[in-house]
Amino acid sequence: xxxxxxxxxxxxxxxxxxxxxxxxxxxxxxxxxxxxxxxxxxxxxxxxxxxxxxxxxxxxxxxxxxxxxxxxxxxxxxxxxxxxxxxxxxxxxxxxxxxxxxxxxxxxxxxxxxxxxxxxxxxxxxxxxxxxxxxxxxxxxxxxxxxxxxxxxxxxxxxxxxxxxxxxxxxxxxxxxxxxxxxxxxxxxxxxxxxxxxxxxxxxxxxxxxxxxxxxxxx
Length: 219
Known about the structure:
Number of helices: 8
Strand order of the largest sheet: 1-2-3-4-5
CATH class: Alpha Beta
Structural class: alpha+beta
């Protein structure tokens, strides 16, 4: 059976990605983003909002509490992620065989795992800054890649975002994958999930994710 611990490569992935979202704000304010906002401007604005909230909770973070950061992640970052698409891509072909109830449980368990992992990484972010790379998408594109570089000590770190334009109410841009130093996040999870599914099916993967989340909650 696959271990439920998060591999060191994934922890490093989230640490670096957190630096991108907790960058120095480049926009004059953290206004609600409009449905027609450019995707690169959307990524910048997310950075500004997260940084502001982290500064506002500095005292709580210094006291070692993870709860304020988890609230920031759940309130600001997670609504900008298409968890249905991200989870389906990570689960792979087995997603089509899952029941509606299994899909819901998978999304919730995956989201809980990412929130805590992301929150733990954000606590370690210090003085990194974000550099936006030239955006090459068109105004009518429905899916785009936004390229950034995180600058701090050492060499710049490549972080790219795959985003999709969502229609209807609450429309706007949603993140559905991250590329860290040339490796896409979904591609990192997919073989681990496949190993668990092959060993015990969808329910085994759900149980493994739930077990990891329970272990994390006790840390």
